[in-house]
Task: structure prediction
Amino acid sequence: MQCSVDGCERDIIVARGLCGKHYQRWRLKGSPTAYSAHDPNEIRTEGDVAFVVLRDVEGTAVGEVIVDRPDLSLVESYKWYRMKGRYAYYAASRTGSRKRLILMHRIILGDDQSAEVDHRNRNGLDNRRANLRWATRSQNAQNTPGLANTSSRFKGVSWNKNAQKWKASIFVGPKCKHIGYFSAEEDAALAYNKEVHLIQGEFAYLNEVR
Ligand SMILES: [Zn+2]
Result:
């Protein structure tokens, strides 16, 4: 006789027509098919990508991680849950007897503890390779908005009282480099964007100017 739960192939019945695992779940949670933190993540595929469903301890879906379909083989042997990081949510798991924390984006790029991984679109649950790149700590820090205590809402822009204009400037190492004065705050922000992109390349934080 087989366990009466759909899809379960165990044939050693403990009680109530259920295998040991499903009988225990019925006793603990009231239903043989109740969610358990040990259940594997559901995975659905769509074309070239796959979505890994993340659930909280109660079993409520709290998010999905998107990965390139070929990378499923790297991640599907772990149980993934959602972890709140400093800037975003990430997919995390625990592994080994010491329950070491691992992050899905590191598993995908190869587990190099010495470097940080940057999510280009800042969605920590978008682990497609096109969205991941290695970053040094300082590069990651550059990819954040500017200080709040300037007189402009844009990074690299401040109001210059003497000139009665918006001033764009940028720190190159310890030195502040003057970019120019502008009547329009947005023009100063755009000038900063151009300069910071020249200096810092693709890791630069760019002002959003409409
Ligand atoms: Zn069963």
The pocket of zinc ion is lined by residues 3, 5, 8, 10, 18-19, 21-22 (CB under 6 Å). Residues 185-200 form the longest helix (16 residues).
